[in-house]
Specification:
The structure holds two protein chains of two kinds. Chain A is 74% helix and 0% strand. Chain A has eleven helices and no strands. Chain A has helices spanning 2-9, 11-32, 65-100, 105-119, 122-133, 137-164, 167-174, 179-215, 227-234, 243-270, 275-278. Chain A has a single domain (2-277), classed as MetI-like (MetI-like fold). Chain A is elongated and about 75 Å long. Helix content of chain B is 77%, strand content 0%. Chain B has twelve helices and no strands. Chain B starts with a helix and ends in an 8-residue tail after the last helix. The chains are: A mainly alpha, B mainly alpha.
């Protein structure tokens, strides 16, 4: 209850959460209802300016931009959620294991592999995966996901290392618990907040990355609607139909902004000790 | 210091070796034979075999890897499958656009971020600070390729100050070329400047809370003097890290931005090579970019150790 009260008072959390939920809501509603069918072409009404009927106008095939943005939100959110999921599911156990056996060969191998992956900018990983397996949403998810693994592994290891020196972990060891049990029962619950905050940041980076990949044609392929591809398609028509580029771009900016603000707010709410780092 | 540098150099070498193996393996599993791709579906089997021989595809994967790596060490990146020209020449032409673009963008980003971050830190909590931080939140959220498109609409199509894309070539003059790189550099710099300004601000605020600043104030320095004389230098460590990291983001980000502005840089070369199955070019460009990232990290590490002796013992 106290948390809810604090959350309601935290301005950046409230603005961020509202923005994020608008887009998550739009994605969910799009499964049941969209103002127009995004797969139906209506050439007679192509490139219309925003109006009461078509709120954000129509594209060169006469498709409703508002409806396409709703459906595109699905792609963006799904890619980012799964990519963050890959990062957490694989990265967190690796980080926990590395911290539990600090300075061991295992730790060394995990951390050096991390450094290696981080030496490849995310976009390069995506390019290589595309070169090998061809462009698709799944490959975009893998590319962004791979990049998330070292991010979470490193964060987990760093946070876990400082917890391993604490008295309550020592007590657990005295009580006879092994490293795996301590990692799961004592370390993990204590770094959960940190993971949630980082998760929201990686979520927003994932949305940007997906948009970028789809823009250069390495992500979602037609007919899957995607904000990045809408921008790519708008490029040749931008001089006479700027609304084609403005609305999908705004959707990306507002979603990412919302997630970042929410992450900042969560950091304050979940861990008051971290508050200093934001100010 | 020498020991530390040698240790870092060794780890640099090992990272590059590991990276080259990963890249080679990844590209090796590509389905499809470059030779039959180049000759088309109607090619005779013996023609394909002859071309495979010519391209050096008939030896084992391990031998090809060794040839590739030792070749790169001597500046020989192989011959493009598609154009039959040395890869190193193709990369050389393109890098003369990508590298200046990255440096231009990094310079812009630093020029924007330093004053903004310092101003926000020194006016912490005021309306100035809040608006600078708000602007950086927005800057981080804007996809750079979308920002690039907006710049094109505004400055190229409406105002006609810049051309919407393309590159005249350095032989047409320095300023003409730099002008062609200006909109791309601005769009690359915006998100980076926002991140850098935030780091600058928080590093400066953290340092201003340190004891040595209190001492400096106690001996009579004003807040302003303490900040410029003592805090700024100490705040540079996290800032330098981020600048180092940003260089790699800029090189990679340029891949997308080059597509917006139709700049014939490394990014467009990669996409072209992927669609033409010119894998040797893809391998080499990816390796080169990874090399750039690892090298910059190495330089930043060494620069730290030179500035801060405490760091030499660690890692």
């Amino acid at each position: 209850m106290q948390f809810v009260k604090a959350a309601l008072r935290n301005r950046s959390f409230m603005i961020g959460a509202t923005l994020a939920f608008i887009f998550i809501g739009a994605a969910l509603i799009s499964f049941l209802w969209t103002p127009f069918d995004v797969t139906k072409l209506d050439i007679a009404h192509k490139l219309q300016k925003p109006s009461a009927l078509h709120w954000f106008g129509t594209d060169h095939f006469g498709r409703d931009i508002f409806a396409m943005i709703m459906v595109g939100a699905r792609t963006s959110i799904a890619v980012a959620v799964v990519a963050v999921g890959i990062g957490i599911i694989l990265g967190v156990p690796l980080g926990l294991a590395a911290a539990a056996r600090k300075d061991s060969l295992l730790d060394e191998i995990i951390m050096r592999t991390n450094d290696l992956v981080l030496a490849f900018p995310a976009l390069l990983i995506a390019i290589m995966i595309t070169a090998v397996f061809g462009p698709s949403v799944i490959n975009a998810i893998i590319a962004i996901g791979i990049f998330n693994i070292p991010v979470f592994a490193r964060l987990t290891r760093g946070a876990a290392l400082s917890l391993w020196t604490r008295d309550f972990v020592l007590s657990a060891r005295v009580a006879g618990k092994n490293q795996t049990r301590i990692s799961i029962e004592h370390i993990l619950p204590n770094i959960l907040n940190l993971l949630i905050v980082q998760g929201s940041i990686q979520f927003s980076l994932g949305i940007l990355a997906e948009a970028g990949l789809s823009y250069v044609g390495l992500g979602a392929q037609p007919p899957i609607p995607s904000w990045g591809r809408m921008l790519a398609e708008s490029q040749t028509m931008i001089s006479f139909a700027p609304h084609l580029a403005i609305f999908p771009g705004m959707a990306i900016v507002l979603t990412v902004l919302g997630l970042n603000l929410m992450g900042d707010g969560l950091r304050d709410l979940l861990d008051p000790r971290l508050r200093r780092s934001r100010t | 210091m020498l020991r530390y540098s040698l240790k870092r150099l060794l780890s640099l070498g090992l990272s590059l070796l590991a990276a080259s193996a990963v890249i080679f393996l990844a590209i090796e599993v590509v389905p499809g034979d470059p030779a039959s791709y180049m000759l088309g579906i109607n090619a005779q089997p013996d023609t394909v075999a002859a071309l495979r021989e010519e391209l050096g595809l008939n030896v084992s994967a391990f031998e090809r890897y060794i040839t590739w790596v030792t070749g790169m060490l001597t500046g020989d990146f192989g011959v493009s499958y598609t154009y039959r020209t040395p890869v190193v020449d193709m990369i050389g032409d393109r890098i003369m656009i990508s590298l200046p673009l990255a440096i231009y963008a990094l310079t812009l980003s630093t020029l924007i971020a330093f004053p903004a971050g310092i101003l926000a830190a020194s006016k912490r909590g005021t309306a100035t600070d809040v608006s600078i931080m708000g602007a950086t939140q927005l800057g981080v959220a804007i996809p750079n390729f979308w920002f690039a498109m907006l710049l094109v609409v505004f400055f190229a199509i409406n105002l006609r100050w810049f051309s919407a894309g393309g590159f005249p070539g350095w032989d047409k003059g320095f300023f003409v070329s730099m002008k062609a790189l200006t909109l791309p550099a601005i769009s690359l710099a915006l998100p980076q400047a926002s991140i850098l300004a935030r780091v600058m601000r928080s590093a400066l605020i953290d340092t201003m809370n340190e004891d040595f600043i209190r001492t400096a104030r106690a001996k009579g320095l004003t807040k302003r003097q303490a900040m410029w004389k003592h805090a700024l230098r100490n705040a540079m460590i996290p800032v330098l890290t981020i600048i180092g990291l940003q260089f790699s983001f800029l090189m990679a980000g340029a891949i997308i931005i080059e597509n917006v502005f139709f700049l014939p840089g490394l990014g467009r070369l990669v996409f072209q090579s992927i669609s033409q199955r010119d894998l040797i070019v893809v391998e080499s460009v990816v390796m080169l970019l990874v090399f750039a990232v690892v090298l910059v990290t190495f330089i930043v590490d060494i620069a730290y150790a030179a500035v801060d002796p405490r760091l030499r013992g660690r890692s």
